[in-house]
Amino acid sequence: MVRIIMLIFCICLLIGCHPSATHVFSVTDDASYSASLSENGQYALVSTASNGILWWDLKANQLKYHWQHGNSASESDNSVFDTAISANAHYAATLSNSSLVIWNIQSGKSIGWWSLPASAQSVAIANNAQTLVGLIDGSVMSLAPEKNLIKFLGHNERVSSVSISADGQRALTGSNDGSVILWQAQTGQPIQQWQLESRLSKVQLNQRGSLSFVSDIKGHAYIYHNDTGAQQSQLAINRRQMTFSSARFIHQDKQLITGSPSKEIILWDTKTGKKQTTRQIQLTKNSQNRGAVVYSIASDENQNIISISNQGLVETWGNLK
After folding, report:
1. What average pLDDT does this structure show over 45-51?
2. What is the pLDDT of residue 8?
């Protein structure tokens, strides 16, 4: 019996056994191109291939809004490839290759549509509707309804990832040229700049704008203090390459939760950079792919971790501390 138990244990180590989610909810059976969770995991914003843009109240298990992004017949809704929700869940943004829409969550209506001067790459939105859009030409648009537009020109190549503090004051942008710039979203004034070895895969600010998480496609990932520019920690990644599709500071910034394009959710200690625990999202029964992308992660009021993936599944993982 002991030998059998040991054998099962060894097999689990080899194949990578992970606890399953405590609750799984499907928000779409359609293919999805992007999805975002609100800060507390109550809401989900999903861009689908053929069913438009969906806004879900996950606590009520209710589809609250069904939006159309396109402003003309030539721009279809399945062109929306990035989404964002403000930290207070008052605003949302949907981004296509050529246009941006900002939505008011209370009314469920669009409060602005913008045509973009270059192909878009990524979007982020603050509590006051201040919105960042990273563009393929290396520039970043910082805009809000009925306010002046700022175009930031600090990068030399396409801006692959953007983030904004909850108050809309600080912006964090990462580029294919390996540069990461922290700057004032209202003025375009640079605050800090860091250089990584390869093109950026993900940047993320904490809500207060005091910490920056940055990572490149070769698996180099760091957390910086924004006021001093000093490195707080380097994530202890023991692989040759690792990329991140999502990230969020949680639990009073003591932990960082990340998602990957290879089904993984990882919890990190922000002080030491050490990995604390790992989970793997599941595939749908009809999935033709062995991999799955973690689009977004959040932590609810009970500190349960919640994820949403390109499988159209919202999974609750409990408290991963």
Report:
1. 94
2. 41
